[in-house]
Amino acid sequence: MREIQALIKVYFQYLWANKFVFIYNLVVPTAFYGYRQMTSNQPILRPITQHMFVTLSFFWSYIIVVTLLNNFVVTLIAHRELGLLKQLFFIIGSKMKLIAALFFVQFILLSIELLLFNSVVLLISRQFSLVILATGVGVAWLSALPIALLCSALLLFKIKIESVNVLTGLLLFGLLFLTGLPTHVTLHAGLLLLNPMNYVAEVAFQIYSIFESANFNPSMWLLVLAVTLLYAGVGLFALKRLTVQPVASRA
């Protein structure tokens, strides 16, 4: 336990030294949301409708996926290729402790980002909504680990540090291009949920449906659970095969 606490402290210090991530993870979507609201023809002071919530859920999707992809997986790749992961492994003696500590730090960061983003949303809307705040917390708790596990699939590939940001940028562009919530439980809906952006948005919408007692669909929860197990299987396979040795520089 002491090793994990020490690692968490190290990762927090590393995060604090790289504060630029807040711009990409939080400032950009928050500024875009504010601009979108100010340039719309709708009055600012209006109740948050189901349609507005669906739009909001995709902003949450962006924040969650980008934070875990860039701060969790890319950090693991960068530390592995720089030899830092190997050094920490020799000190701690456990690969899973390294992963758990890094995920915990990113989960705390993610919680702060969602809290700040939702606060801005409510300020712009000039109202207070426990549903928005509770759903934001709920979607973070339910989707952060599955998304982190799925994104860990990138650890299976030989990716150079110089190329990782370009690769993740293209990946995010593709995921955003293919977004869309499934309307009912079908094979197509399952394929849509393979996109982590859609997955997070659907989890958020289902939580919202519970709070609002509207359109609650147990079958959709079963589909989400099935996709979650698939995410977990992919991630556990990738993390099990994760080596602390640099791989991209090998011949």
Question: What does this 3D model show about the protein?
Answer:
The protein is mostly helical. The protein has ten helices and no strands. α3 runs antiparallel to α7. The chain starts with a helix and ends in an 11-residue tail after the last helix. The protein has helices at 2-17, 21-38, 50-82, 84-92, 95-125, 130-151, 161-177, 187-193, 196-212, 218-240. It is globular, with a radius of gyration of 19 Å. It is 77% helix and 0% strand. It comes from Leuconostoc holzapfelii. This is ABC-2 type transporter domain-containing protein. Keywords: Membrane, Transmembrane, Transmembrane helix. The chain crosses the membrane at residues 12-33, 53-77, 98-124, 130-157, 164-187, 220-239.
The number of helical runs is 10
- Count the E strands: 0
Q: Strand-residue fraction?
A: under 5%
What low-confidence regions span 5 or more consecutive residues with pLDDT below 50?
A: none
Q: Roughly how much helix do the residues carry, as a percent range?
A: over 70%
The major beta sheet can be summarized as: none
User: Can you write the helix and strand succession as a string?
Assistant: HHHHHHHHHH
Distance between the termini: 38 Å
Radius of gyration over all CA atoms, rounded: 19 Å
Structural class: mainly alpha
Backbone shape: globular
The multimeric state of the shown protein is: single chain
| Mean pLDDT across every amino acid position | 85
Keywords: Membrane, Transmembrane, Transmembrane helix
Organism: Leuconostoc holzapfelii
Protein name: ABC-2 type transporter domain-containing protein
Transmembrane segments: 12-33, 53-77, 98-124, 130-157, 164-187, 220-239
